[in-house]
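re: that chain from earlier
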Amino acid sequence: MAATRACMIALVTFLVLEGVAAAAVGTAGTSELRRRQVRSLLKKLNKAPLASIESPDGDIIDCVHISKQPAFDHPLLKNHTIQMRPSCHPEGLYDDSNVSTYSMTQTWHQNGKCPANTIPIRRTKEEDILRASSVTRFGKKSPMSVPKFLSVDEHNPLDVTIGHQHAVTYTRKGFVQTNNKVGIGASFSPVSSYGGLQYEITILIWKDPKGGNWWLQVGSNILGYWPSSIFSNLQNGASNIMWGGEVYSPYAGQTSTNMGSGHFPREGFGKASYIKNIQVVDSFNKLKPPGPLGLGNKQPNCYSVQSGSTSKNWGTYMFYGGPGKNPSCP
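^ sequence. v structure.
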């Protein structure tokens, strides 16, 4: 009997170990497949540069010939002719002085610049892709439901906000960059400090009334455009516009990632992040106040938003952000 029992224990042990070995082989196979997928995607995303610049913050900026940029991987842009400048700007752009008169540059400028006829592209790294939920999801924005916003004209205590929160990553497939000074996704320098100097940049997106392309300008730099040919409804105009902040974590549970400065809007100027002089471009290519804004926020104890439109110098504005996970936001 003892011999039979010993034999059975040995058999069970063998089966358990065999199962563990099979699981290990399966995990290794999955990991190898994922690594191959990552390497394949990196090869597609990172175009051969004419020069590369290592930024003090660890980024690598590749100077890619303007005709070889990722935009032209888009099937609708195979024979696209690059438009170097928009036909015109919107009328009525706020051009008053910023909080600080210091010019804002990007960190990689400390170590060089991209030559003419190239564009700066932040090199995508393996860890960038691995932060996505899957290799196929990298660079794609998660679908979101249409939020029920509250108007800022309504009584709206900040602890009764409703809306949405979603994750986003960006790639440049479809965006045609024309500027060789600003790298999308690269860090700016200097940056605002809590209770100290505050630095601002002006961001403008508008539809060229002649060419129909959607142009992007940061400060005085026109970065490039999204060609109208890659859109359907946006060929005519936008029906909804959103401003604010987003954070993302691939892990379950509430993230401790800061939004904005990591401080709540109630702390105000110099401490909380803000967007001011919010405007929209109308059908006559003129900038104007957006009218009543809606506030969207799903987790007010984690991140919050506060809006206003009574300031002469700030126009329509909003403070936003928060620390994420905290004692009131488990």
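Residues 2-45 form the longest helix (44 residues).
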